Fold each of these.
Amino acid sequence: MVQHLLITRPEYDYTTRYISAWAEKYLKLAAQKGYAIIDLKRERANRKEFESIAKKRKPAFVILNGHGNSDEVAGDDDEILVDSKTNASVLADKITYALSCQSAKKLGVRVGTYPHTVYIGYREDFAFLRLEKYGRKPTEDMLAGLFLEPSNAVVISLLKGHSAGDSFSRGQQEFMRNIQKLLTSKTKPDEYSALRFLIWDFKYLTLCGDKNKSLL
Amino acid sequence: MDENSNNEIKDLVITRLETLPSDAVISLGSSGEFTKDQMIESVRRGDEVGQKMIEIEMTFLQGLKEGILYGTTSSHNETGI
């Protein structure tokens, strides 16, 4: 049976445009792997459509890209798509990865209490650096890539059928790999300055719920 | 923390921020995006964003102290089953 992947991709500021553009990298793999991708991009990243599709299509995998806080993840124009108080159950029995600030602090913990459910996200703000000159071509910005590649590694590992726990570890490993790479003497000063933000993201990447769940 | 220590930490964070490339932008999620100069000014003023930047720097320094940079990954961020 074909599995559905539901992804939200608002694109209304540089941060959301960057994470949306970098998502293209794993969406290609998802298509190759045979997932039916439901891509809620730009204005389609609204609560009505998100809830409707999550209930009707029952996606096995939900990827939330957007701004957030400890209780909520937003879509287009900061419209709240899912929150810990009113509709967290829409993520029950699913694997969710949220590239969104702080949402693992409360929303993720709430979602993780449902059976056979896992939520991977960040307990604090997801911080990254970008260079202004790449504003129109985000995937060429290798400074931003230091942060977004490890984030993508979590998704790629899940798409390959690894467990949530192993995929979470994979993300941590990729953050650590970039951290250690920056410690070498050949590192450029601008890249070295990324270290403190990478350690921040590494520290706050969080898994809530069933670490044994996988997409297989 | 007394005012002298606070000012020393701010100076340290500002010195570190000055090593950022001039066209770098710091994305702090819902807090917004900040150029190097804007972030330095926030740290100097001690506003909410500046405090967050100080927290990030302190986490980095604590990580150095704990040897996190040479360590391995951990599962301490896992909750649940």
Amino acid sequence: MSIEIRHVTKRFGEAVAVDDVSLEVETGSLTALLGPSGSGKSTLLRIVAGLETPDAGEVILSGEDATTLSPQKRNVGFVFQHYAAFKHMTVRNNIAFGLTIRKRPKNEIRERVEELLALVQLQGFADRYPAQLSGGQRQRMALARALAAEPKVLLLDEPFGALDARVRAELRDWLRRLHEEVHVTTVFVTHDQEEAMEVADRVAVLNRGRLEQIGSPLDLYDEPASEFVMRFVGDAHDLGGALVRPHDVALRREPGDGAVEVAIERITVLGADARVELVDGDGARLAARLRRDEVEELDLEEGEILWVRPERERVFSS
Amino acid sequence: MRRYVPRFVALAYLTAVLLAPLTMVFWRTFQHGLAPVWGALSNPETVHAFKLTLIVTAIAVPVNTIFGVAVSLLIVRKRFPGKGVLNAFIDLPLALSPVVVGLSLYLLYGRNGWFGSWLLGHGIQVLFAWPAIVLATIFASVPFVAREVIPTLRELGDEQEQAASTLGASGWQTFRRITLPSIRWAVIYGVVLTTARSLGEYGAVAIVSGRIVGRTETATLRVDDSYQNFDLTGAYSISLVLAATAVVVLILMTVLKPKEQMA
């Protein structure tokens, strides 16, 4: 099912949380809503689910206007950052909730729950209570619960935000694989650009309630539409009035060609790569990312004076 | 040694203020054996008083439970003008002397009261009859369910309810399957307190009931009546039953409270 958001605006008192945002999510895609906190990404997701009502604009689900439809009637699966597990129910009853509400036959429910328990790898946990599960397990249960009634759209609000780094990475891969298996139109909210770039096939970047850009992860990285996107998606540094990615910084031993004089402040080797932190005459800092063998070839040392020139740079008029 | 001092002080205080009077009642009641106690309690007017108290409680508790849960949901989950005032108003019966409550009911439902004259015109006697006793009891025990449920609802948050609605549950289904099971211990605790308050209400009821022996006299009024008539055994016996009920209530609360914290 496709999602169309048309000129949606939402205010909370004086603050504008979502400011005239329009975007389209294609059927079967995996889209990330990416932005810093307060960018309106969660509010937008909640508007799609019907948990918030927009002040203006429309939400179209599968070509039908759903703007005034209650969440109950949208057939949308929603996963909350803090799981929203039904604490007084077993894992089995949590997952079965949507089906029980729909009064499906008992044996059908039992089969479907077993199927989902296997899908989220929680077999053997069916009779436990949420309090007896780890954070990652609770979130997988919440996912199974959201998927149980075969929603047309799966919406996830910072689904991995409350988990530690390792579980987070695991669940990220797992969500990617799940999407390949289940193919339900999925939108997830995240403030972590790496997460968005790794998991999603399309990323919408939001800033202060406005949509900055929507595109593939590669598009955003290579062709950022604004300074905000350039800075938010990947590293970017100021160099001679322009913005440059660390791996687009070329280091020279000699001046010339409009190169800027800098001093090496610190060299950090990260496996096969190296990060060279530089500071120019005005005290502005930037970093260059090189391969480790390049650093060794150039024989760089901390404190040395060098000249840098951007190989690719961008200037945004603000 | 020093750390035992506060405990000793606390215990001594409780003994002096609570335990000693209760023990006195107990001792006085059985001073002359069991027979006079049984005699006093089986007195038809006393039996009637207990019956009336139970009936009034049986009406006041469900009414206040439903009202308490509804108003808690309203205060915690909804935004509306005047919410703060409503929240403060729930506590009014705790702050107000029951005598004042009784008097205001008297003014409202009396022969010349706002509602009283109309109701009397339609043949409905409120004052000096059971409806006034019920009203006074309901008023006195309004806060207890809401005061227990409101903090529990706040702590619960509304994410589970939102999750239920995205899963297709209607408002009522969400309440029945998610909200109510989550607040049940708070509700039960509130019901226990409401019951205790309803059984023990005296001041407001004293004014509006008319204290007609065998007709509008509740158990607490009966205690006072017996005492005034030098029927000390009667007064102590009824008091003992009321005190015993309070003890049962206390035990119930202690048993229920830890479960609530665990849930």
